[in-house]
């Protein structure tokens, strides 16, 4: 059986979200996937074709003013051509985001990704982790330290660069990449069995 193809379609304004995109790629590669990183603000026709051929697409964007960045919204609107032909129907989808505040309304960005995926007929893969850092015996170094279930969420101080992305958030994004790749492997096996 062929390895699953996972594409990470993301925008990064200041480099923090790019760190998470790389982490998603690392996790997916570790789980046996072929992975493509696609910067949506520089997307080419060849990269649109890569997305069309992917088994899973992981959406990523910083959270600005309570939603995905403007550059990501431009990409999302451009997917309407895929919506019209149902080109991405039954692909897997997942998402990740970063903001400066602990909450920063990141949930809204992840919900935006989930609704986008639903409109495109895709199946959403959640984070699949219990929350971390929510008891006296836990710490900020736990996976899913921000307690988000819909996707991978990160928080980075606004006055620090990409090198300051929290290691636990990087590890959580790696977990998401592995989970997406493992789920895609199961989907591919099921489709092969059903054929």
Question: Explain this structure to me?
Answer:
The protein has 195 residues and is of the alpha/beta class. It has one domain. The chain has six helices and seven strands. Strands 1, 2, 3, 4, 5, 6 and 7 form a seven-stranded mixed beta sheet that branches. A hairpin with a 2-residue loop joins strand 3 and strand 4. Helix 1 crosses helix 6. The chain is globular. The mean pLDDT is 97. It comes from Streptomyces griseoruber. InterPro entries: Flavodoxin/NO_synth, Flavoprotein-like_sf, FMN_Rdtase-like_dom. Pfam families: FMN_red.
Q: Could you state the order of secondary-structure elements as H and E?
A: EHEHEEHHEHEEH
**What is the end-to-end distance?**
13 Å
Oligomerization category of the chains in this entry: single chain
The helix content is 40-55%
Radius of gyration: 16 Å
Q: Structural class of the helices, strands and pairings?
A: alpha/beta
Total number of helices: 6
Number of domains: 1
- Show unreliable segments: none
Topology:
Layout: E1 5-10, H1 16-30, E2 34-39, H2 45-52, E3 56-64, E4 67-68, H3 70-78, H4 80-85, E5 92-99, H5 106-119, E6 123-124, E7 152-155, H6 167-194
Parallel strand pairs: 1-2, 1-3, 3-5, 5-6, 5-7
Antiparallel strand pairs: 3-4
Helix pairs in contact: 1-6
Short summary:
The chain is α/β, with parallel strands linked by helices and 195 residues long. Helix content is 41%, strand content 19%.
């Amino acid at each position: 059986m062929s390895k699953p193809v996972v594409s990470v379609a993301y925008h990064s304004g200041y480099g923090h979200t790019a760190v998470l995109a790389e982490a998603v790629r690392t996790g997916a590669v570790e789980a046996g996937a072929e992975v493509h990183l696609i910067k949506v603000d520089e997307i080419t026709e060849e990269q649109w074709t890569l997305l069309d051929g992917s088994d899973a697409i992981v959406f990523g964007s910083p959270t600005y003013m309570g939603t995905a960045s403007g550059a990501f919204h431009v990409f999302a609107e451009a997917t309407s051509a895929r919506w019209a032909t149902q080109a991405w129907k039954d692909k897997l989808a997942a998402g990740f985001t970063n903001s400066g505040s602990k909450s920063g309304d990141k949930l809204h960005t992840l919900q935006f990704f989930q609704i986008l995926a639903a409109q495109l007929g895709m199946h959403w893969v959640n984070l699949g982790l219990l929350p971390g850092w929510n008891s006296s015996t836990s710490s900020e170094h736990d996976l899913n330290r921000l307690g988000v279930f819909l996707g991978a969420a990160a928080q980075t101080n606004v006055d620090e660069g990409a090198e300051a992305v929290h290691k636990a958030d990087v590890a959580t994004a790696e977990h998401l990449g592995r989970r997406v790749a493992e789920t895609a492997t199961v989907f591919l096996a099921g489709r092969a069995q059903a054929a």
